[in-house]
Write a structure and sequence with these properties.
Elements (H helix, E strand, L loop, with lengths): L3 E2 L1 E4 L15 H14 L3 E5 L5 H6 L9 E7 L11 H8 L4 E7 L2 H6 L5 H17 L3 E7 L1 H7 L1 H13 L4 E6 L6 H14 L5 E5 L6 H11 L3 E4 L13 H10 L1 H4 L2 E2 L4 H4 L2 H12 L16 E2 L2 H9 L17 E2 L7 H10 L2 H7 L9 H15 L8 H11 L8 E13 L5 E13 L2 E9 L2 H12 L4 H4 L3 E10 L6 E9 L5 E8 L2 H19 L5
Parallel strand pairs: 1-10, 2-3, 2-9, 3-4, 4-5, 5-6, 6-7, 7-8, 8-9, 11-12
Antiparallel strand pairs: 13-14, 14-15, 16-17, 17-18
Helix pairs in contact: 1-13, 5-7, 6-7, 8-9, 14-15, 17-18, 18-21, 19-21
The protein binds zinc ion.
């Protein structure tokens, strides 16, 4: 069976850049475009040349990408000629392979927002598409508010798309600009449109305001559309755009789509998807969504003990696709509900069982050390520890219980002081100073340090004490710090989760629990350093 080609259009750098708090630099945009290009995305929309300096710079040079690098902009303004509209002229001069025009396709918007006639709006679409074609550009038309427009006046919405098609636009992209259309409506309306315009010229641009942007995109494909527009991680204003990170594996791994369509993303590149998703979060300095479908850390995490034994025997019993296909991995959670098979599976995953085997120590399910580890983990969880999201701390606990962690150092005492005062300039400042005493073997080290806050000051002082390990840990940095207060009232305990990153980009999370937030932080910090030393095979 020959498969039809389905095209992917990424607008992370244009529509995604509308997200609250997202501000891409030129370097960010170039890096993301290169990443999308490598992934096999057919179209990368870079931005809106002329609208801001970054986008103007982005389109001032040839970018030499495999993908069809696309500039976005408006059709000519009403009442002007194409050559007499500076915005359009700038767009036509942009160094882009394709131009994606946005135009109104809802008669109500034409009258109220554009304050022009329906005829003039269509003339503007025709003139703009013709001008871009004359420049040798591939042309797309984003039909803004298409679905709302179609419901109000189907003839006019279609006339806008058809005008562009007749002038040689490659794609007519039907936009659910307000994001309120539902999948069955999308399917019906796209079904109507492809009776007039061939489906292999029709695209879908869905927003996630009813959390159905992915479903809407797939509904459009079922009805005949052959281009999907979306963004990485569903970035976009309000509730975001259709999430390509969910759409791509669905198209690749679900038979209904994979047997009918080819996309530009190869099986091999699909395996980089989790990495691509996390890289974008990294650039935006956001903690990745653990529950993101396919690529989230919890997407293949199973909790109950009975499931874990089944998964080990036959993964397909509890997984809808193989996690490796998208570059993710199976994770078995250690929790209060966990049975021995979970613990054993987790020990296996972190390589501990293989490692012990090389030392001639075989661990079996009924090994008393497993029972002991389970008891320790349960006792810890009872007082507030949660190892599900702190696997580095769990690994340390496991290795300590099994007796395979060198004694690198002991924190024997610490003191931290936070002071608010006026500095010499008369500004109110808050400063933190810490003193940490550490024992390494029989030697005692005491260091003091200032920091941006108490945790930072402790971190700096501790690292001074254990300077002998500096080569292993100097590049380790704290990337995320989360605090939760458990229980309420006077019995409250504080749980601190800290995420760390080293020079190779490897990340890990450690946990500390205490009635005191500083104490909890020191526990997590100590775990992190020991974990890193262990992973680096540092000698004690
Ligand atoms: Zn949009």
């Amino acid at each position: 069976m020959t498969r039809e080609r389905l095209y992917l259009f990424d607008t992370t750098l244009r529509d995604g850049a509308q997200t609250n708090g997202v501000d891409f630099t030129l370097q960010d945009k170039l890096a993301i475009a290169a990443m999308l290009d490598d992934l096999g995305i057919d179209y990368v929309e870079g931005g809106y040349p002329g609208a801001n300096l970054t986008d103007t710079q982005l389109f001032s040079e040839d970018r030499r990408l495999e993908t069809t690098f696309t500039a976005f902009g408006m059709t000519r303004r009403p009442g002007r000629s194409a050559s007499n509209d500076p915005g359009l002229v700038a767009l036509l001069d942009a160094k882009a392979d394709a131009i994606c025009f946005v135009a109104k396709s809802w008669d109500y918007h034409v009258r109220v927002a554009l304050e022009t006639t329906e005829e003039e709006n269509i003339a503007s679409i025709r003139d703009s598409v013709r001008a871009a074609r004359a420049k040798g550009r591939e042309v797309l038309l984003d039909c803004e508010h298409f679905f709302d427009g179609y419901k109000a006046n189907p003839a006019y919405a279609l006339a806008c798309a058809e005008a562009a098609y007749q002038e040689g636009a490659r794609w007519l992209v039907l936009c659910d600009t307000n994001g309120g259309t539902l999948p069955h409506e999308i399917e019906a309306i796209v079904g109507d449109v492809v009776k007039r315009i061939p489906g292999d010229h029709v695209g879908i641009h869905a927003h996630n305001d009813t959390e159905q942007a992915v479903a809407n995109s797939l509904a459009a494909v079922r009805a005949g559309a052959r281009q999907i527009q979306g963004t990485l991680n569903g970035l976009g204003e309000r509730c975001g755009n259709a999430n390509l990170v969910s759409i791509i594996p669905t198209l690749k791994l679900k038979p209904e789509f994979s047997q009918a369509f080819d996309i530009g993303v190869s099986d091999e590149k699909l395996k980089s998807l989790a990495h691509v998703s996390r890289t974008l979060d990294e650039m935006l300095n956001r903690a990745p969504n653990r529950h993101a479908p396919y690529v989230g850390q919890s997407a293949f995490a199973t909790k109950a003990g009975i499931h874990a034994s089944a998964i080990l025997k036959e993964p397909a019993t509890y997984e809808h696709v193989a996690p490796e296909a998208v570059g993710n991995r199976r994770k078995l959670l250690v929790s209060d509900q966990a049975g021995k098979s979970n613990v054993l599976a987790e020990l296996d995953r972190i390589g501990l069982i293989a490692e012990l085997a090389t030392l001639g120590i075989a661990i079996e399910k009924d090994d008393p050390r497993i029972a002991r580890l389970l008891d320790v983990a349960k006792a810890r969880e009872a007082v507030g520890y949660s190892y599900e999201n702190a696997q580095a701390s769990f690994e340390l606990l496991a290795r300590q219980t099994l007796g395979t962690v060198p004694n690198y150092f002991d924190v024997v005492q610490f003191d931290v002081r936070v002071e608010q005062r006026y500095n010499a300039l008369g500004n109110k400042v808050t400063v933190a100073m810490a003193v940490v005493k550490v024992k390494i073997g029989n030697e005692v080290f005491i260091s003091a340090a200032e920091g941006r806050g108490p945790v930072n000051a402790l971190d700096v002082a501790l690292r001074k004490d254990i300077a002998k390990f500096a080569p292993y840990i100097e590049k380790v940095e704290l990337t995320d710090y989360r605090v939760r207060i458990l229980n309420t009232g006077t019995e409250a305990v504080t749980r601190v989760l800290i995420e760390w990153k080293d020079e190779t980009g490897q990340t890990w999370t450690t946990i500390g629990v205490s009635e005191n937030i500083i104490d909890a932080s020191v526990q997590a910090m100590t775990d992190s350093i020991v974990y890193k030393l262990l992973k680096s095979n540092a000698a004690a």
